[in-house]
Amino acid sequence: MQGDSSDQITENNTKGNDGSKQDQNENNETQSDQRKEVPQNDQISQSSDKVVDHSKQDSVSVVGNPTAITVMVNKSNALPKGYRPNDLVRPKVKFTFGSQQLDKALMRAEAADALERMFNQASSNGIQLYAASGFRSYETQEYLFNREIEQVGRQKAELAVAKPGTSEHQTGLTMDISAASMNYTLDESFEYKPEGKWLAEHAHEYGFILRYPKGKENITKYQFEPWHFRYVGKEIATEIYHKGITLEEYFQNKKGI
Ligand SMILES: [Zn+2]
User: Fold this and answer.
1) In 10 A of CB 122, how many CB atoms?
2) Which of 116, 145, 156, 255 holds its CA 20 to 30 A away from the CA of 239?
3) Which CATH code for domain 34-256?
4) For the segment 25-34, what is each residue's pLDDT rounded down to a tens digit?
């Protein structure tokens, strides 16, 4: 498997939130949203009237079902160290980084198939989508995390970069999606672009959910990410879409039945 070795990861900025610009450079293998997909508690508190529960944020369990399509990975539930899906393939879609053979071009087979169908249907509707970042290995996340610790210390690093095992990209079931109208970057304005609107409305029909919705920051512990889509299968995605809930709430509700 080529790509995503640490020496391909170029130096990122230290300001955060503009890592996505790196994707325009085809020689870079940066993690376009690594700095966004971290809990930013201060911002969460500002954007919601709920209070973040800081007491539970340090306990991380390792999930027992890493290969399940429904696996829930978040700040409290990590994938096993070194877990790498054994059915990763490259979906036949357009990528923001062209034809480069990189880990981030990969998804698990079932998710890749659904992504292809979603992109094809979007294209039929005049919506041209570009895949920006899919699979990310434990080792890559570990490298990024450790590098950040060296640069800014552990406390700041934990706020800026997801801990190894806690990035949903390691599941191989996630894809960050962009468009020409975004200049192939990832940021919140995607919500207002035709491509972002189309995805928000139709992704569930292909088994994908908008994983970090606006207004649910206290539950997901992530900022709103209109570009980050997670495959969970059509049935669950449709239920989550119609109920306007998160994956966390979906499982919480199931437990209550
Ligand atoms: Zn993402």
Assistant:
1) 22
2) 116
3) 3.30.1380.10
4) 333 444 444 4
